[in-house]
Write a structure and sequence with these properties.
Elements: H1 10-29, H2 32-58, H3 62-88, H4 108-133, H5 137-147
Helix pairs in contact: 2-3, 2-4, 4-5
Length: 148
């Protein structure tokens, strides 16, 4: 291995190129629809985790705080599965911060439930579509497991 600031050897360059080509080949094998599913599902799981965290901190009722904790656990697990699946396929997924503003403190639980339900319904639709028509069997199974 070359030292800090030193030029890599030809063998190291060849190894790096081979590793990069392997990742590109894996990525190229993932269909556009499966890639879109992974990115959308990952972003949705991140949002659901963030919504759950908000509910555990700011929920007015015990039921909303408990639901928030469950969302963190369930969607956090799904987030991990999606990350692992994307890595196996050579894809890098990047989470985006949740931009929803829940400012209505007097009716926080009601506002939070409306936003959480909206995001949940969108996620269910994404996973149903993948379970029905995804091109890769492992991603179809992941979607089916998430829906059950």
């Amino acid at each position: 291995m070359a030292g800090v600031g030193a030029r890599p050897s030809k063998a190291e360059l060849a190894k790096q190129q081979a590793q990069g080509a392997g990742a590109q080949t894996a990525t190229a094998r993932v269909s556009e629809s499966d890639r879109k599913f992974l990115f959308n599902a990952f972003a949705g799981a991140a949002k659901q985790v963030q919504l759950g965290e908000i509910a555990t901190r700011r929920g007015q009722s015990e039921q909303v705080r408990k639901l928030g904790s469950r969302m963190v656990a369930d969607h956090g697990r799904l987030f991990g599965e999606l990350s692992a699946e994307a890595a196996r396929k050579g894809l890098k997924l990047v989470g985006r911060p949740f931009g929803e503003k829940l400012k209505d403190r007097a009716n926080f639980d009601r506002a939070w439930l409306a936003v959480a339900l909206d995001h949940h319904q969108k996620q269910v639709a994404i996973f149903q579509r993948q379970a029905r028509s995804g091109t890769e069997a492992d991603l179809r199974r992941l979607a089916q497991r998430a829906l059950s």
